[in-house]
Specification:
This protein has about 475 residues and is an alpha/beta fold. Helices cover about 30% and strands about 15% of the residues. It has two domains: about 5-165 and about 325-460, 3-Layer(bba) Sandwich (FAD/NAD(P)-binding domain), CATH 3.50.50; about 170-320, Elongation Factor Tu (Ef-tu), domain 3, CATH 2.40.30. It has twelve helices and 16 strands. The model is unreliable at about 155-165, about 225-230 and about 450-465 (pLDDT under 50).
Length: about 475
């Protein structure tokens, strides 16, 4: 069998490496940290979560739940670790990010079929079976190498991925728990879904107006050549959202709907939600409050939020470049390059947005690389599944204005009959997706997974079935 070279030990790369190893495929896993760091990472651990600590909804028959359920049935290592390091987050799956990445690093490092190389990769051999999973912070040198691979001289019109190789993503601030004035906030989950694990900072109209005006007047970080920042629409900095109108924040990250204040019995004019950051519950992140303001300005403006007047910030919001390729022009639904089928992409670099989506594409790339290493042919997941719908989008979308996407029901195909009730329609879509996913797992020509190696005992909650 061939050896698989895997570049990047983030969420997608770690999952892909594990899936290959479980099928008896040797992996050489390259990770440039700590030899070379990035603007957003803080450790040298694998699968470090640099933005939020949430892996989205666990509510049954939602699109994020469906994707995670398919991942569970396919034997995702990282999903099991996420559930074993979960922190209270209402109906969402959120993790202690430090414990999560430590557990992933431990499991991957103890796998005998995975050889770890702590060095930067700047060149890719088109004929070598390789998975590129370098994530949103791919180095400049490797980005240029990807551009070179993407230019197919056999085509009359070669794609130009360098024109669409990145957008800008943002990181939310984190505050110390004991610096929050709990007399001004309350615990609740939106619409009382799940346990009341979010801290909610309610605002009156006067408080909201004062915060809004201060936010618009705050100074952003100055960066050369960033005059025309290309933001991902679903992760805009709060100041960018605010510039679209006075009420945009109240219909976005500060939406109070479903957050009744138990002390007054009323829904506030606006609300800021804080989500528990780790198992010790000693820190909380401001949900949806990613921004590009100077640190001093953040401290000033965010202190106008009720309950955060004297907050101590463990991390301020910031912005980082998020690299991705023009996947519809470059990839097959198996995540293989059209011009170089021995090279696969996974994670955010292949055009998905979100932690769960990144892990899922890593799982798919691991399965497909395993099939290629064993001399077989990868089989794309069915279109009706969350896996299949995700890869269908990133490989079939319009190439001109391609942007990364999260998993939503909009990506799944419509049912063959009209169902007016939305909840019932989603339930039927999930039922169909899981049925077809199970069938795909059974009939796929992929190498069968081996039992979890004894080394995985370092992860005591991992299901070895």
């Amino acid at each position: 069998m061939k050896k698989v070279l895997l570049i990047g030990a983030g969420l997608a790369g770690s999952e892909a490496a594990w899936q290959c190893a479980r099928r008896g495929i040797a992996v050489e896993l390259f990770e440039m940290r700590p030899a070379r760091t990035t603007p957003a990472h803080q450790t040298d651990h694998f699968a470090e979560l640099v933005c939020s600590n949430s892996l989205k909804s666990e509510s049954e028959n939602t699109a994020p739940w469906l994707l995670k359920e398919e991942m569970r049935r396919a034997g995702s290592l990282l999903l099991e670790i996420a559930r074993g390091t979960a922190v209270p987050a209402g109906h969402a799956l959120a993790v202690d990010r430090a414990e999560f990445s430590r557990k992933v690093t431990e499991a991957i490092s103890h796998e005998p079929l995975i050889t770890i190389r702590r060095e930067e990769v700047t060149q890719v051999a088109a004929g070598q079976l390789t998975v590129i999973a370098t994530g949103p912070l791919t180095s400049n040198a490797l980005s240029q190498e990807i551009v070179r691979l993407s230019l197919d001289p056999s085509r009359a019109e070669a794609p130009a991925p360098h024109n669409n190789l990145y957008f800008y993503d943002s990181i939310s601030p984190i505050v110390e728990a004991d610096s929050i004035d709990m007399s001004k906030v309350y615990l609740a989950a939106r619409y009382d879904k799940g346990s009341p694990d979010y801290i909610n900072c309610p605002m009156s109209k006067a408080e909201y107006d004062r915060f809004y005006d201060a936010l618009l007047a705050a100074q952003s970080v100055e960066q050369k050549d960033w005059e025309n920042l290309n933001y991902f629409e679903s992760c805009l900095p709060i100041e960018e959202i605010a510039r679209r109108g006075r009420d945009t924040l109240r219909f976005g990250p500060m939406k109070p709907v479903g957050l009744k204040d138990p002390r007054t019995g009323r829904i506030p004019y606006a609300a800021v939600q804080l989500r528990q950051e780790n198992l010790r519950a000693d820190s909380y992140n401001l949900v949806g409050f990613q921004n590009h303001l100077k640190f001093g300005e953040q401290a000033r403006v965010l202190s106008l939020i009720p309950g955060l007047e004297y907050a101590r910030f463990l991390r301020f919001g910031q912005i980082h470049r998020n690299t991705y390729i023009n996947s519809p022009a470059l990839l097959y639904p198996t995540l293989q390059m059209k011009a170089h089928p021995q090279v696969l992409f996974a994670g955010q670099i292949c055009g998905v947005e979100g932690y769960v989506e990144s892990i899922a594409t890593g799982l798919m790339a691991g399965l497909n690389a395993s099939a290629l290493a064993a001399g077989g042919e990868p089989v794309p997941p069915p279109r009706a599944t969350a896996f299949g719908s995700l890869v269908h989008y990133i490989t079939q979308a319009e190439t001109k204005n391609f942007q990364p996407a999260n998993i939503t029901f909009d990506l799944l195909p419509a049912l063959d009959r009209k169902v007016r009730d939305r909840k019932e329609r989603h339930r039927l879509q999930c039922e169909l997706a899981l049925r077809e996913f199970e069938e795909w797992l059974r009939r796929s020509a992929l190498p069968a997974a081996l039992p979890v190696p004894a080394a995985a005992e370092a992860v005591p909650f991992l299901d070895s079935a």
